[in-house]
Amino acid sequence: MKTCPDENIVIQLGKEDKESTVATHFPCSCIGEGESLFISFKPEKVEVARDQLYRPIQSRDKYSVFYIDTIGGKNTKQKNLFRNNAVKEFKYLCVYGEKGMTVKEALKRDGRFIDKLDDFTLTDNKNPNCITEQKQKVDNMDKKKFKICLPRNKRANDSSVSSNNSPQMGDTTPAVDEAQQRKIRAAVQKRGISVRAAMEKSGNSVDIGEIYEILRHQFPDLKTFMETRFPGDSYQKAVNLRKENFGKIQQSFSEVHRVRKLLKLGESVCKVVVGDVCQGTGFVLFGNFILTNAHIFKDCVEGQKLKGGIDVYFLFNYEDPEPHTNYYYFELAHREICYTEGYLDYAILELNPESQKSNHTAKTEKMKVPPGLLKMFGPMPRDGEACIIGHPAGGVKKMDPTVIIEKEKREQAVLDHLHPYIDSIVTLHSISTFIKDQGIENIMIDGNKADKVVTYDTFMYHGSSGSPVFDAHGRVFGLHTAGYPYRLENSVNSVIEFAQPLLTIFEHFVRMLKEGRAKELLKRVEKEVKENSVLKKLFKSVVELKEEQVKAEPAEPEDSSDSSQSMDTD
């Protein structure tokens, strides 16, 4: 019988050809019932055995099993990550680690990665925005798939950096922890959003001929309906009218005094980075408090507190593209969060003004938290001009002048958007079905959100959740929240987007403070709004309610359980 050292063995996990491979020391408790293993041999070493061979096998719940993509991520092109390139025959390396172990420890013990893989991060295949540092625990990585990413100008097999290059303390500002800086830089450079990334996944095996046959029966009625809305050349006339109306909006926001005012107000807008989970946009509400969307903290909150291990950063002045970017950022003051899911979808957190750091290592001037926008809140307009300022795609700050779509015209706006696809059976039907499944009917006439949101068309999605929406007078009236997107070929588009009314959010926030007996914070809010007659009146109407009325009034119970599945813009 031919024998082979364990170090030269390759084990395929499961019957699916070349899907994943496990190490020779992979715990048998992590192999599913009835799952097959296929063993082959290589002439050269594939892995190096370590002390794991002598550790007792534990139950499955004690391990986290995750997958490393054999195609590397950022800065890994033509760089060696594995001890033997034979593993690249597979899509993934299946790696395990006892809960409590770090990512670096798990990969080093695995034995199939190069010894000098010292400086790396992992990005989630489903959500490239999610960055996992090598020192993080493996506890929450079970069943997830990742790519290895390397820092810029750093090869996987480079020698260790000399200790003489360690960070030095500045005269006035301490040097920032290197791992933390890497995490911030990675978040700044990330593009795209988690929800949209999920849309890229497609593992269905379908009979295209059967689909076409079904659609041919359904398509005539849909096409006839579209054509009745635009007989003759009326579609082109409608497009020309929209261009004319948008031209007026652009003209309004081209006035220098308006632009100057918006740019000044935009200084209070920041990029919000939620650890390796998500990113969005936010803005200073008042003092050191930041307002953004609640959905960017999904699964990160217990009660009214952020879970342990979730780091949050607020990046200001991120306006210039690389390599000239010059931002500064703050950390959380504490883990308490005013968190409201459902209809209003908002979160308020407090930053620590003393934690301010810059992306530059040289000593920098201490920056102050920009002014809050609470005192600029105004009513939600029915129509007219609007401008959104945020960080779409996690990139530099941008502004988008747009037109408010009245609720009576929302259906028409969607049909306008779909009209170019009228002769494409599959495309038109697929988009229509997809946005309907997301709950787009909720914002149409008679929908349960028809009067509760303001709608518009914008490119500001992919990371812009939580952006402030301004009217032509510089008042902030909306919190840019979500939309109804679809994927077509290599791009994601949205038929319509919407914002939550800030006056409603303000009223709800004040009511929560009153119910929580947060007297000091209520006094601060009252002081902030004293020059804003609309907010002052609203504040007074809430705080002067009798205690029993406050307790008896539910906080939008019918909306909290809303079944709408509109896609978040983060």
Automatic annotation (TrEMBL):
Signal peptide: none
InterPro entries assigned to the protein according to its UniProt record, in alphabetical order: Peptidase_S1_PA (IPR009003), Peptidase_S1_PA_chymotrypsin (IPR043504)
Name recorded for this polypeptide: Serine protease
Polar residues composition bias: residue spans: 158-171
Superkingdom assignment: Eukaryota
Gene3D superfamilies: Trypsin-like serine proteases (2.40.10.10)
PANTHER family recorded: PROTEIN FAM111A-LIKE (PTHR14389:SF3), SI:CH1073-475A24.1 (PTHR14389)
Organism of origin: Sander lucioperca
GO CC aspect terms: chromatin; nucleus
Annotated spans, Disordered: 154-176, 547-570
Gene Ontology terms: biological process: DNA replication
